[in-house]
Amino acid sequence: MWVTETLYPEWRQQLRVDETILEEKTSEQDLVIFHNDRFGHVLTLDGVIQITEADEYTYQEMMTHVPLLAHGNVKKVLIIGGGDGGILREVLRHKNVQRVILVEIDGTVIERTKKYLPMIPQGSFDDPRAQVIIQDGIEFVKNTDQKFDVIICDSTDPTGPGKVLFTSDFYSYCKKALLPGGIFVNQNGVPFLQSDEFTQTYNNRAPHFKDTGFYLVAVPTYVGGFMALGYATDCLDYRNVTEEELAKRTANVQGNFTYYNPQIHKASFALPQFMHDAIKK
């Protein structure tokens, strides 16, 4: 039996199902968890691969450590989405972090992840610094009076419940919820196949921040080339933090990196020309 990803009508990716673990329709989406002998446990939502045990570290480490280490003194973090707990796990590795709020619209994702994919959160939901709120992310940032050093939006693609997390209104609310010098990052898909998402989210973010751009990560199961991670802040100095300084800051991160290092941090902001051209247009 094979699972066919349904993200693109003209592009097919299939993973063999070596064991079906769970098939469920939640209040928000169709959730499937299965095991593949190469990629390990796999989670899909509405037919789209969200995370695999084998390559999840690439995405989680770059979504987390680039903004936190660029900032250098993060104490409070907001995660929007991220119900699998991988981003939460990585954020809590930072010794300086005192508080993390995770806002997830679909509580079933969290509960099923903790039961069937515990290797992803690794107990992070039980950390006393972590608070989970089951709520629509845009409603939380619209109404909260709390402020954060870093906001990480680990959402699905801009369809279904994740669609509102790519709008100009959402980015304006996130800007309001950031402390001075704060950083916002989000996933922006694969620009080679999702060029509209790439340019539209750039245009929606740009009016709200002095420095709006992208950095890249290679995630094997997010097919189609490099994945773009959106980056936005009012502090223009973060891009100039040296490799030497980033290396010093990693001393405040517990455990080892599998993908991230200061060199890849700096290099990830170099974009292929077709991405520059798309932004200019």
Structure, described:
The N and C termini lie far apart (43 Å). Strand 5 and strand 6 form a beta hairpin. The protein has two domains: 51 residues, Roll (Spermidine Synthase, Chain: A, domain 2), CATH 2.30.140; 225 residues, Rossmann fold, CATH 3.40.50.150. It has 281 residues and is an alpha/beta fold.
Structure, briefly:
The protein is α/β, with parallel strands linked by helices and about 280 residues long. The protein has helices spanning about 55-70, 85-90, 105-115, 135-145, 170-175, 195-205, 245-250, 260-265, 275-280; strands spanning about 1-5, 15, 20-25, 30-35, 40-45, 50, 75-80, 100-105, 130-135, 150-155, 180-185, 210-215, 225-235.
User: What is the CA-based Rg, rounded?
Assistant: 18 Å
Report how far the terminal alpha carbons are from each other: 43 Å
Taking the sheet with the most strands, its summary is: 7 strands, mixed
Under CATH, the topology of the largest domain can be stated as Rossmann fold
Strand order of the largest sheet: 9-8-7-10-11-13-12
Number of helices: 9
Could you outline the blueprint of secondary structure elements for this entry?
Layout: E1 2-4, E2 14-16, E3 19-25, E4 30-36, E5 40-45, E6 48-52, H1 56-71, E7 76-81, H2 86-91, E8 99-104, H3 107-116, E9 130-134, H4 137-143, E10 148-154, H5 168-176, E11 178-187, H6 195-205, E12 211-217, E13 227-233, H7 243-249, H8 262-267, H9 273-280
Helix pairs in contact: 4-5, 5-6
